[in-house]
Structures are given as C-alpha cells and as structure tokens.
Amino acid sequence: MAKLERTEKPINVIIDERQGGELGLPEIQRGYVWKQSQARDLGAR
To answer: Is there a contact between 23 and 17 (Cβ–Cβ < 8 Å)?
Structure first.
C-alpha cells in the first residue's frame, strides 16, 4: 500500500504531479467525475 501524506501544495503543482505520474489518486476518488462548473470554481479560489 502506498504511503499517504498531507500536503499544502498549490493546485497547479498537484495537477502537474498527477499528469507526470508522480501522484496517485486513492481508489475511492477514481470514479468521481467533477462537473465543469465544479472544476472551474475550484481553480477560482
């Protein structure tokens, strides 16, 4: 099992790490799909 860590990275760093294969998502999150407005609103914060 992978080690889970708490982090306070900016969202753009998290996205880059995910796209680069450095960051994995827990199984529970993989099936969840954000609505376009939810994703937009997350980036606006």
So the answer is: yes
Q: What is the DSSP string of the chain?
A: -PPP------HHHHHHHHHTTS----HHHHT----HHHHHHHHT-
- What's the CA gap between 10 and 17, in Å, rounded? 11
All residues at 6 or more sequence positions from 6 whose CB lies less than 8 Å from its CB, including other chains: none
pTM metric for this prediction:
0.45
Residues 1-45 pLDDT 10s: 667 778 788 989 988 998 998 887 777 656 678 888 988 887 765
